[in-house]
Design a protein that fits this description.
The protein has helices spanning about 40-50, 110-120; strands spanning about 5-10, 15, 25, 30, 35, 50-55, 60-65, 75, 85. Helices cover about 15% and strands about 25% of the residues. The protein is built from two helices and nine strands. The protein starts with 5 loop residues before the first strand and ends in a 9-residue tail after the last helix. The strands form three sheets. It has a five-stranded antiparallel sheet. Strands 2-3 form a two-stranded antiparallel sheet. A hairpin with a 7-residue loop joins strand 6 (about 50-55) and strand 7 (about 60-65). It is globular. It is an alpha+beta fold.
Length: about 130
C-alpha cells in the first residue's frame, strides 16, 4: 500500500517554476496533453523529460514519476481531474515553514464511497 499525503489545488492555481522564482510557467495537463496557451515550451519539455507517465484503469488520473528517484511530486487525481494533488513533503515552504495542515483519510479500496463521503471533489471546484 502506498501512503499518499497530499493537498489539492485548482488546476488554474498551479505553476511549475522554471528559471527562477519570478518566472511562473503554468503547466496544465488533460489526459497527458498540454495546454500550450498557459505553459512555456521549455517548462513542458522539462516536465516530460524528467518524468515518466503512468496511467492505468480509467486513465483519468495523470501521474508522472521522477525518472531519477521515483517520487510523485504532484499529479492529476481521478477524484479531482480539475486540479492537482501535490505531495506535501515535496513542497519547499520557504522561511515561513509549512502552514497548519488538516489531514483527512481517503479509502482508496472503496473509492466511490470515499469520494462521496469526503467531499474531496469540492476542493478543486471553481468558486
Amino acid at each position: 500500500m502506498r501512503r499518499n499525503l497530499h493537498f489539492m489545488v485548482r488546476m488554474t492555481e498551479f505553476w511549475l517554476v522554471d528559471d527562477g522564482p519570478d518566472n511562473r510557467d503554468a503547466v496544465t495537463t488533460e489526459n497527458n496533453d498540454f495546454n500550450n496557451s498557459t505553459s512555456s515550451m521549455l517548462a513542458q519539455q522539462k516536465y516530460v523529460d524528467e518524468t515518466k507517465l503512468y496511467q492505468w484503469g480509467t486513465k483519468t488520473a495523470v501521474r508522472r514519476f521522477c525518472r531519477t528517484c521515483g517520487v510523485l511530486p504532484f499529479y492529476i487525481p481521478r477524484s479531482n481531474p480539475d486540479g492537482y494533488a501535490i505531495t506535501l513533503p515535496c513542497v519547499d515552504w520557504g522561511e515561513d515553514g509549512q502552514p497548519k495542515t488538516e489531514i483527512r483519510s481517503f479509502d482508496g479500496v472503496n473509492w466511490e464511497q470515499s469520494r462521496a463521503a469526503t467531499g474531496i471533489a469540492k476542493e478543486t471546484e471553481n468558486e
